[in-house]
């Protein structure tokens, strides 16, 4: 069992409409005295600013995000957002989607809501456009800072050194509403930016007809595996609440319309507890002796944290949540019916390879397209909408998870979890 860096943090209740502080990246890094063990993923590309941040000409704090090692030329980006200047460095062969993913992790502004004002003239570039091919507006290009010492010697200004390493620096303004500011609009019937946005047909990649099946399955496609590697390099040191326990399996749960009715959660006139799916706490209490529990939601960390507290899932005396993951490490794949994001479980497995893997992880979601990178580990349950009192999905799921936890089950991928197969499964319970 591998040890984990000291990344615990005490959940704090955040008001949904509170102003978001972006003076530092939202993704946390290990404490200086808590070096990762050999089984931990490498350090994140998101680096908190020093205690004495450099000030810009506008006297704004600069938040810095640096890309990891790469052979491609580097590009620098200086982004103005709500009175703060954010600094990002990425390789030419990375895409606009990569830039937006990092900006989301720093500001909570969802990628689809971001407007990169002044970066280009005219139409915004598509998410798949490599950053090295974007036709940047001449006014957005900033000259490299002049060296303060003799040419070839190293300066004492690390910010200048970093910019000198970039082929060019692009400055623009980010416009967009953070996730927290969208809650009221969502409650009033606006578009959900999470799993509730049914803009793409749901897909079961294990049961697609030949006319819709991709030539190469997503979890075997080198293009998507490369995207996964980038995500792991950038965001793998996400915070944990409770470290993995030796010998436990892993239960990954979706939030929106899976463990709770999202619209009921967003209703300010209704207690959050009324939005919980029937049997939620009974399920987690029953399986906790055998499973570590993760909640992975296609929303921002702040939304996820607040709602888990309101649902009574954080600090519950009967079970503990090991960690939560938000939308940040999700990435898009292309199918014949549209583009959609995925939850790649390798993102978790790579961090704790001695604890979790395909053999002992089950992912519960109401959208089977989220299983595209791990089709043999997904179990789709009926979406929980309009808070029906007679819903029994979690009562059936509790029985199945206890059957999977039996010592006779050695590899979850050998079992059929989709359709109604999991409800018909007959096996001993642990």
From TrEMBL:
GO CC field: nucleus
Listed cofactors: Mg(2+)
Biased composition (Acidic residues): 55-65
Stored Pfam families: NIF
Region (Disordered): 1-73
Main location group: nucleus
Residue span(s) of domain FCP1 homology: 244-404
InterPro entries linked: FCP1_dom, HAD-like_sf, HAD-SF_hydro_IIID, HAD_sf, Ubiquitin-like_dom, Ubiquitin-like_domsf, UBLCP1
PROSITE patterns reported for this sequence: FCP1 (PS50969), UBIQUITIN_2 (PS50053)
Composition bias, Low complexity: 30-44
E.C. designation(s): 3.1.3.16
The protein, known as: protein-serine/threonine phosphatase
Organism per entry: Pseudozyma antarctica (Yeast)
Lineage of the species this protein comes from: Eukaryota, Fungi, Dikarya, Basidiomycota, Ustilaginomycotina
